[in-house]
Amino acid sequence: MLRLVTPTQDFRPNVPATAPMARPEDEAARAGLEATRLAAVERYGVLDAAPELAFDRITALTAELFQAPVAIIGFIGSDRVFFKSHHGTTETEVRRGTDPSHSVLAPWIRDNYKHGFHAGVPLDSPDGYAIGTLSVIDRRPRRIDEQHMRRLRALAGIVTDELAMRLAARRVLVQADIMKAEVDHRVMNSLQFVSSLLQLQSRHGASTETRQQLLAAAHRVRAVARTHRVFSADETRGRLPIVPHLRELCGELAGILDAEIGVVGAPETSVPKDQVLAIGLIVNELAANARKHGAGRITVSFGLSGGEHELAVTDEGHGLPAGFSTAGPAGHGLGMKVVRALAAQLKGRLSTPPPPAGGGTCVAVSFPAA
Questions:
Q1: By the number of CB atoms within 10 A of the CB, which of 137, 147, 273, 322 ranks highest?
Q2: What is the domain class of 3-144 according to CATH?
């Protein structure tokens, strides 16, 4: 004889005392209650989730306390019960029972443990909806006393406490994400405001040199703002595809410098996240120099060869003056000082290789590929 020991309530929503009870014939009300119960399940993110040691320990302890071969923590979806933890069985889910006088596991138990034993207690959400069950199952028929049921309810309480802590942690993370997004937004606005102030000040500089320096500073601040935006969008990644970032950066630079700027490189090429700012600032400085001292189209290339990345900026002007050296007097401008400092930060070296097309100027920074 099949002996099922189940809790007195079924696994339809346990409606809080303050809420009106839906009449059995009121299908719309029952559907609404079930939708609310399913929403309570979804809040915990447990359906189809990977096994976790914390829950596996509870089912193992349950099986040991009851000296039974099978213990299950199941969460109830719309038409199935998903086994978040399943000690003693390889099943991961079963069809959900619909008979309110039996456990939600009744069809599976009838098929697999026809003459056995089952005891289960519901896992309730704080608002009174049954979201799952902690069950212990045996092939041998047996009885269970109240002391064992108290133990089973206590173990179920540990499960719901674990769920509550996880839900609280998720809410904290969501709030932290909202706060971070707000901080990022304010940082971006502040950087853009500083850049605008520098641009405005450059229009009233006492000399041409002062105006140019202020405008260059505005471009540097704006380059930092662009990179900050990239970091904010991809904060969880350790490496970032650099070529798409350079294309976005140069698209904005082209408008600012009133120049034609192209980017050449494999889109999938990636670099460590902490190198993106230095690379972006180098491009900003070299492109500005190419616009100021060169002519024609500016080309930014990024490639990988022999274990090194090479970032190069080329123009179509008249080339470098005879005897030019990045370390000589001609390379002592603020822009080249910034580029040398950033190249050192990348553990790289600055050079002026021959332009690929044979004319113009090419300035390159080579650095180890991490």
A1: 137
A2: alpha beta
